[in-house]
Fold this protein.
Amino acid sequence: MPVVTVRALEGISIEKKEELMDRITNVMKEVLGKNPEATHVIIEEVSPENWGIRGKTVETINSGK
């Protein structure tokens, strides 16, 4: 049972999440021969205040501070 975890900033639409899950599941089947029925994809959404780049939060960077 493969498990794939994706971390991304919050705000992804349900449609985009399902598209991502479908594509990841297909890649696992195509590349590794994994059964799509047993493939789990987990999307962990992180708030911009809890994600840092270059020593600043994404929230700070997006606000232009």
The domain at 3-63 is CATH 3.30.429.10 (Macrophage Migration Inhibitory Factor).
